[in-house]
Structure formats: C-alpha cells, structure tokens
Amino acid sequence: MRVSHAPDQEEADLKAFAVLPERRSLGQSVYENLKEAIIEGSLVPESRVVETRFAKALGISRTPVREAMHKLEREGLLRQDPKGGFFVIGLTRADIEEAFGIRSVLESYAARLATIRHQNGELAPLEEKLADYEACLERGRVDELPGINTDFHNLLYGLSRSPKLVKMINDIRVQIFRFRQVILKIEEMARVSNKDHRLMMAAIRARQADRVEQLVREHILRGQDIVLREFAMELARPS
Questions:
Q1: Which of 31, 78, 93, 214 could join 72 in a cystine, given CB atoms 3.0 to 4.6 angstroms apart?
Q2: 93-236 sits in which CATH class?
Q3: pTM higher than 0.90
Q4: What are the extents of the domains in the chain?
Q5: CATH match of 9-88 with 1.10.10.60
Q6: Which pLDDT tens digit goes with each residue over 7-66?
C-alpha cells in the first residue's frame, strides 16, 4: 500500500524478473511475474513500470510485456500514463471499503450455499487445509499462510455449486489476496482467522446455514478493520 520514491526502485523491481519459467507461455509468465510483484509489494504503489526496461532486462521483445501490462490494467493493478508507461495503482480507503463490502455479501452467500449443498466426504480437503495452516502457523512459516488461506476459501466456495457466484468472487481475487497479505502477517490476526475457520467448519458440518453466513460476514469485516488500520498507519508514516 505504501508509496515509495526511492531513485533505485526501478532497478530493484527488475530483479524479480531475472528468470522466467520455461513451461508456461512467455506472455503468461511475464503477466504472472508482474502480477505477483504487485501483489507481494515488490512493485510498490505509484512506482513506474516501463515496458522497454522490463523487456530489456528479460531479453525479450516488448510485445509480451505490453500485453501483460494491458491485462493488468484491465484488472485494476496498473494505470497507463498518457505520457507513456504504466504506474502501479495503490489502494484508497474507498477501494478497501468497497472490496470488503462486496466480499461480505458474495462470500457469505457462497458459504451458505456450500453449507446446504455439500455432500458427505467433501469437507475432508478443507480440514486438510486447516491442518496445513495450523502447522505453518506453529512453525512460524507465516509467508505460506495467505496461499493456504486462499486454497481453503476456494474449496469452500466451490462447494456452493454456483459457477456464476464463484466467478464473481474470482473477479476480485487479486484485491482479496493483497488484503490477506496484510492481515495474515499479523500473528494475532492469523490465529483469529484460524479460530474463525474452525467455527465455520463446525457450523458447516451441522448444516447451520444462517450461522455460517453470519460467521463469514463477521470474519470478512474483521479483516476490513485490520486493513483499514494498517492503511491509516501507512499514510501516517513519512515517505
């Protein structure tokens, strides 16, 4: 979320793109690397992303880099400068409140449907994810928590058996992951999140749809409070 104006920022940003995986298409690899750098904060808000510099650093043509940047622009992660190049879009308070408001509606409803529609044996993968999460939490491997958390939620919402609803949730996936990075780096919140998930699972097993819907909504809005607090602290820090 933080804005940085360090003169060597662009050079530092390029280090994340030294090697591209060979198994994926070149364009997809560039896109995924850029996206990951934005989500994880290697490319900070308001930093300039110039296609020629990235293309030169990677030893490739500008075309796949340009295509990746336009795709990220459509996803709301980059904005194009009329004078040339792109800038990483930061998050405003309004962005945060809007995203969490949408999430609280979509995800609580998806969890409700999953509670009603899941079949015997389908909760086992969710339990496995919770076990993985708890193991990483106890061993201090906090960097792995956002990915496991995302997997848990994806599995849960898949049980809603509503492809349209899942697609709507996936459309804000990038912002969701950026928020989870903020929330789960705080150990106290990582433990609260795990407690919430355990309560959700108990209610899902009991097919208490109303309770699950309420738990998920409260879980998401609690996350909003943390992100807004961190956002305010970032704004208060000197550049």
A1: 78
A2: mainly alpha
A3: no
A4: 9-88, 93-236
A5: no
A6: 454 555 555 554 454 445 788 889 888 888 887 777 888 889 888 888 888 889 999 999
